[in-house]
Specification:
This protein is of the alpha/beta class and 400 residues long. It folds into 2 domains: 275 residues, Zn peptidases (Aminopeptidase); 110 residues, Alpha-Beta Plaits, CATH 3.30.70. It has 10 helices and 16 strands.
């Protein structure tokens, strides 16, 4: 396979430059929808490659096209995300974040640099493959409403319309050099819950004169557990967690109110709607029955992510051809959420995991932690495999 060998060779050749890109991005992170310098940097790198057929979307998003032979025959989209997280980095490395309180703790620097590497490979090999590849450098994955939804609203899936889309995401539980796939349901929807429980504060020694919002809040937290344990079908994975409780009283002061935040996640949209009703009913009835009241907001987030079975089967075959069967893993359902799900609800999509772990180097921290980092050899895998996903084919199957 001449194209396969060429892509593998170019991935090795461009590794050092893609590592430079990744380290620059890691050292200069920007928060969701504020990726202005990041977008300029990506544009400058596309200029170096010679990719000028591009435009801005959703302010800081960049969409570019690479045309091969017979460009109208098919279009495949590749997506990488740009934004970082509000986390103070604790790593001591030469490419440590220079932005106080902001860090690429979810690997978006890896996704963007890998996509730039894939773009360079695809642009250099465009005489060897057919169709068009649409590159999507997307803002705001980490923050509602999600940059994917904004790009879709602005028409990213048209002109030209991709028949499929691929995305990759770092996975610190998979060894560098390996990748993971799951067909069908893969990642959960995500909804944010905000509530303020109102009572009547007063002296802690005279609770009979008060309406204790802390007690109400505690009962709400306990009662909400029945949404998953007693209301949902056992075959539908669901999670309901309250992660923030603020009751600003004192040892002898019962406060007037308690503020809480939480999340609800599932992989079934009909059950998602039903669960919202149960959450609201439990919160309101519990507060009322105990003499208080509640302000409740359920902010609907990303839908669940589903990997198209046919496309993902083809992707697995491509990955096995590119990396070897022993380096392609089947992975479990992941209850985290990703706004790539919006693409998966619109067109056939495949979202797979790029291994970044290296225990010998101490690279074991999970995403969204202040010590997250990667084995940078994963960049060679990331850019090459993404390019191969877009234009490669196996001997026994058509291009997917």
């Amino acid at each position: 396979m001449a194209l396969l060998n060429k892509i593998q060779e170019l991935s090795k050749l461009y590794f050092e430059d893609v590592r430079r890109i990744r380290r620059h991005l890691h050292a200069h992170p920007e928060l969701s929808f504020d990726e202005h310098e990041t977008a300029k940097f990506v544009e400058s790198e596309l200029d170096k490659i010679g990719i000028t057929d591009r435009k801005r979307m959703a302010k800081t998003g960049i969409v570019a096209l690479i045309e091969g032979k017979n460009p109208q025959s098919r279009t495949v989209a590749l997506r990488g995300d740009l934004d970082a997280l509000p986390i103070q980095e604790l790593n001591n490395c030469e490419y440590k974040s220079t932005m106080p309180g902001v860090m690429h703790a979810c690997g978006h620097d890896v996704h963007t640099s890998s996509l730039l590497g894939a773009a360079r490979i695809l642009n250099e090999t465009k005489a060897d493959w057919e169709g068009t590849v649409k590159l999507i450098f997307q803002p705001g994955e980490e923050k509602l409403p999600g940059g994917a939804s904004l790009l879709i609203e602005e028409g990213v899936l048209f002109n030209p319309a991709p028949q499929s889309i691929y995305g990759q995401h770092v996975m610190p539980f998979i060894q560098a050099g390996k990748v993971g796939f799951r067909k069908g349901l893969y990642m959960a929807s995500t909804d944010e819950i905000y509530m303020t429980v109102h009572g009547k504060g007063g002296h802690g020694a005279m609770p009979h004169l008060n309406i204790d919002p802390i007690l109400i809040a505690a009962n709400i937290i306990t009662a909400l557990q029945q949404v998953v344990s007693r209301r949902s079908k056992p075959i539908v994975p669901s999670v309901l967690s309250i992660g923030k409780v603020i009751a600003n009283g004192a040892t002898n002061v019962i406060p007037n109110e308690v503020y809480m935040e939480g999340t609800f996640r599932t992989l079934d949209e009909a059950w998602r709607d039903e669960a919202h009703k149960h959450i609201r009913a439990i919160c309101e009835s519990t507060a009322t029955s105990m003499g208080g009241s509640i302000d409740l907001q359920i902010e609907r987030g990303y839908p669940h992510l589903i990997n198209d079975v046919v496309l993902t089967e083809a992707a697995i075959a491509k990955a096995e051809t590119y990396l070897g069967k022993e380096n392609v893993l089947e992975i479990d359902i992941w209850m985290a959420a990703e706004d790539f799900s919006y693409y998966s609800q619109a067109i056939p999509a495949c979202f797979y995991r790029l291994g970044t772990r290296n225990e010998a180097l101490g690279i074991i921290s999970s995403v969204h932690t202040p010590t997250f980092d990667i084995d940078e050899t994963a960049l060679e895998t990331g850019m090459g495999l993404m390019a191969w996903m877009a234009v490669g084919q196996c001997d026994d199957m058509p291009i997917a």
